[in-house]
Amino acid sequence: MQTGAELARIATEQNRELAEDLIERARREGLQLVGENGVLTGLVKLVLEGALEAEMAEHLGYEKGDSAGAGSGNHRNGTSRKTVLSQVGPVQINIPRDRAGNFTPQIVPKHSRRVDGFSETIISLYAKGLTTGEIQAHLAEVYDIEVSRDLVSRATAQVAQDLAAWRTRPLDRVYAVLLIDCIYIKIRDGAVANKPVYIAVGINLDGDRDVLGMWVGTGGEGAKQWMTWLTELRNRGIQDVLIACCDGLKGLPESINDVWPQTDVQLCVVHMVRTSLRYAAKQHWGAIARQLKEVYTAKTADEAEQRFARFEEEWGDRYPAVIDTWRRSWEHVIVFMRFPAPIRRVVYTTNMIESLNSRFRQASRRRGHFPDDDAALKVLYLVIQNPIKNHANITGRTQSWKQAINSLAGYYGDRVTDR
User: Could you tell me which residues belong to the region Disordered (predicted)?
Assistant: First the structure.
């Protein structure tokens, strides 16, 4: 049996000449494209009705007007009129009926008031950070469609259900790398304030990256809150994490090891460098960043210690806070120095989340602020689900993964191979 998409394609091909005539007429006579009498509206009507007729023929087993239908026990029984919303505006179509009353259209399902594409347009605009009112104005300006805010709200209501399902979906048993980062966005909580949104990204043993979870914090998270969120990930299926990479959030390294005792916790050295520069005068940034890079690119932990001792000797008196930042976190800074180069390239920084954070910021700036936590999470979820063409995407396969997984197998043994 042919699918609805195949039937639509057949109907489109059958009516190609008519469609070309419509477009040519529009060019010749300067007719409007959208609206009640628009050419594109007529074209959509033509294609939809043609597809519905093809579906009816498939349902009955004979074409319209074919004598083979005589005595078949079921036959066409006129049409019913229905207005549906499309991407070119409201379109009034005639839907064929059968005598037995059991025809179930696929192109325009029963009780549906929109054809595929309209809701997707609204959701795409919502993902870009537009408010309900802005989406309404955009549809009126670009598509000449007058829709209510309530309709826009209903179109985006499904997102909340999809988000809830996404946040509870099962996860893999073992992740090679777990990266945790934080972004601040404006959310109204009594008053508008910057609130942290924490993002967990995982790389599984096949090298596939995926956003595993998101949580809105209060700004004062500690071990108890981290335990709640990390236990949530464990309950969804994660039984082991080889390496966790984070930026030193309070209580996080300890909580990771409480949930997954065997996990190696690596602090993101890029975040460490950025934190260090906050304590230094701008004219010294270049020299400090260069010398710290020599520390975290050392081949061994002993070599890193020697290089940092020289760094401390040069800068310790002038910037003691920089030295203290590294000394307090030293055990988690040098974790990846035990690893061969293929593993280091994957885990030494959480910067693979930066492109996603950039898109988060773009969507949140357009909104100004979100009315509540749920509204913020809905938009961020849509950002994740709608990758931008020709832009780096957080999901997908990690580069040079074969080298990395072989190194991981050599280092972690059966935690990698027994799966």
Answer: 63-83
Count the residues in the chain: 419
Indicate whether 34 pLDDT > 50: no
pLDDT digits (tens, 9 = 90+) for 128-142: 667 777 777 776 666
Q: Are both 83 and 161 inside the same structural domain?
A: no
Give the whole-angstrom CA distance, residue 217 versus residue 151. 31
Domain boundary among 104, 125, 145: 104
Number of domains in the chain: 3
Is residue 112 assigned to a domain? no
Q: CB neighbours of 163 closer than 8 A, spacing ≥ 6?
A: 377, 378, 381
* Residue 403 scores a pLDDT above 70: yes
CA–CA distance, 417 with 401 (Å, rounded to integer): 15
In a shared domain, residues 162 and 249: no
In a domain, 208, yes or no: yes
Question: In sequence order, what are the residues at sequence separation of 6 or more whose Cβ sits closer than 8 angstroms to the Cβ of residue 142?
Answer: none
User: Poorest-confidence range of 36-40, 112-116, 304-308?
Assistant: 36-40
Structural domain range at position 261: 172-417
Determine contact, residues 184/195, Cβ cutoff 8 Å.
Answer: yes
β-bridge mates for residue 213, sequence order: 200
pLDDT tens for 193-225 read: 889 899 999 999 999 989 999 999 886 667 788
Q: Are residues 263 and 389 in the same domain?
A: yes
The answer as to whether 111 is a domain residue is no
C-alpha to C-alpha distance for 118 and 271, rounded to whole angstroms: 42
